[in-house]
Design brief:
By secondary structure, this protein is an alpha/beta fold. The chain is built from eight helices and seven strands. A seven-stranded mixed beta sheet has the order 3-2-1-4-5-7-6. Helix 3 (75-83) runs parallel beside helix 4 (96-109). It is globular and about 45 Å long.
């Protein structure tokens, strides 16, 4: 169910969890104390019903913008932020437990170049300027394994069309998944929406700057093989 309440907001089906098991007191404190300062306020429909575009120059001081879609527990995002202080990263994750985990990692790492949208990435797409994102990550997205649920996957036109709009020419899209049928759908759909696949000698080998995530580790424990796909925005 879509939890957006503003009367101008479009009706959008949302599938997946927003809340999990109870948060620890420390995680609640992270959410109460840190989230508002790290959230681009203009994504919120009540704060920005006219959908004015984000001022990324003001948000990141002119740094290049990267986007992580569904950052899970935030391991990869904090790794990239610490490794590349010259870029600004926006992470989008509707699962509030994952947001709380990321906030704790941000405090521990002391990185200052991350902003967070704790909600549907399509609301973020509404307010990102055209051709503004230099790199995007889609890492171990929800596989929706049942065939009747494949339309819920990110690699569908509802998501790929706005993603292509906000990515600049030559920008890189990285996709990691351990689900063979998700690989199939990714290879079918992503090139149809303005992207070209970069050839790789071994698509089971992660990128040189990769940081393992909890979802990758779970896949390996359960005997599934990760795939790492790279595309370039045309």
């Amino acid at each position: 169910m879509d939890e957006t309440k503003h009367p101008k907001a479009p009706w959008r089906n949302f599938y997946g969890r927003r809340h999990g098991k109870g948060l620890r007191d420390s995680q609640r404190e992270f959410l109460d104390a840190d989230l508002a300062a790290l959230s681009p306020g203009a994504v919120d429909w009540d704060a920005n019903p006219e959908r004015r575009k984000l001022d990324l120059g003001a948000l990141f001081g002119g740094r290049e913008t990267w986007l992580e879609i569904g950052f899970g527990g935030g391991e990869h995002m904090v790794h990239q932020a610490a490794r590349r202080p010259d870029v600004g990263l926006i992470g989008c994750e509707p699962f509030i437990n994952g947001v709380a985990m990321l906030l704790g990692k941000i405090r521990k790492a002391g990185v200052g170049n991350i902003r967070i949208h704790p909600g549907d990435v399509r609301d973020l797409f509404d307010v990102l300027p055209d051709a503004s994102v230099a790199r995007a990550f889609l890492l171990y997205p929800d596989p929706w394994p049942k065939k009747r649920h494949h339309r819920r996957r990110f690699v569908t036109p509802d998501y790929l069309v706005p993603l292509a709009r906000v990515m600049r020419s030559g920008a890189e899209l990285r996709v990691a998944t351990d689900i063979p049928d998700y690989v199939r759908q990714t290879l079918e759909q992503v090139p149809r929406h303005g992207f070209s696949r970069q050839a790789a000698a071994d698509w089971h080998r992660p990128w040189d700057d990769w940081a393992p995530t909890r979802y990758e580790q779970k896949a390996l424990r359960e005997g599934r093989t990760p795939h790492y796909l790279t595309f370039t925005r045309d």
